[in-house]
Design brief:
The protein is an alpha+beta fold. Helices cover about 35% and strands about 25% of the residues. It contains six helices and ten strands; from the N terminus they run H-E-E-E-H-E-E-H-E-E-E-H-E-E-H-H. The protein has a five-stranded antiparallel sheet with strand order 1-2-3-5-4. It has a five-stranded antiparallel sheet with strand order 6-7-8-10-9. The protein binds zinc ion. The site of zinc ion (ZN) has 8 residues, from loops.
């Protein structure tokens, strides 16, 4: 129990990391001495490759999501704005755990294609953490764009301004360009993305009951 408390609160779990001998990887949230939230990748596995895998996952969160390394702990990362962005961080955790490594992938462009509709969607930074959504597609896409804006709201706790394009905004007031580009394809089907998060975390594992179903 003491060990768990030292790590902070577990906020995400990959029970079986297929890219590293099925080790369990978890993400813990804690506060740095100044009160800034940070997140640390952690594994209880003593497999010799575990440390390298955690190094990679932390580096991938910085590269793909725009987080920065935190000196607070090994394999720890934080948002440069100092905010927690818990939902977005959980989403980023799911995304980086999919990566085999060790090479970091190319950055995502601020656009995404949707096979079903043939539409191409764009996110355009407006400054101060706001982003306008738009679509290249025939016909009126306003309803679809509002749904996608709502997807950003669910996935990353962003505020939705339907009148502005629509636009979505981070409550911290800071830009997170890499994160927005990463989230865009998921925001096209936010419900499926959220189901994926739940199924990854809930996959048949031997986890102590106290560690399961932790609230937000
Ligand atoms: Zn922020």
């Amino acid at each position: 129990m003491g060990h768990v408390l030292e790590l902070g609160r577990r906020v995400a779990l990959q029970p079986m990391d297929a890219h590293c001998h099925d080790i369990t990887v978890a993400l813990y949230r804690d506060l740095a001495p100044g009160g800034t939230p940070f997140y640390a990748f952690h594994s209880y596995s003593c497999h010799p490759d575990a440390g390298l895998r955690l190094d990679f996952l932390a580096a991938a969160a910085c590269h793909l999501g725009g987080m920065v390394a935190s000196g607070a702990r090994a394999h720890a990362v934080a948002w440069p704005c100092g905010a927690a962005h818990l939902s977005a961080t959980r989403r980023l955790f799911v995304e980086v755990c999919k990566l085999a490594g060790p090479a970091l992938p190319a950055l995502r462009p601020p656009e995404a294609d949707e096979a079903r509709s043939g539409a191409r969607y764009h996110v355009e930074g407006l400054g101060a953490g706001r982003y306008r959504l738009s679509a290249d597609a025939p016909g009126d896409m306003s309803v679809r764009l509002r749904t996608i804006a709502g997807g950003f709201g669910k996935l990353a706790e962003m505020a939705v301004d339907e009148a502005a394009g629509p636009a979505v905004a981070f409550p911290c007031g800071h830009d997170h360009d890499r994160l927005v580009a990463l989230l865009l394809p998921r925001a096209l089907n936010a419900r499926a993305a959220m189901r994926e998060e739940e199924s990854v975390a809930g996959r048949g594992v031997l986890v102590a009951p106290s560690a399961q179903n932790q609230p937000n």
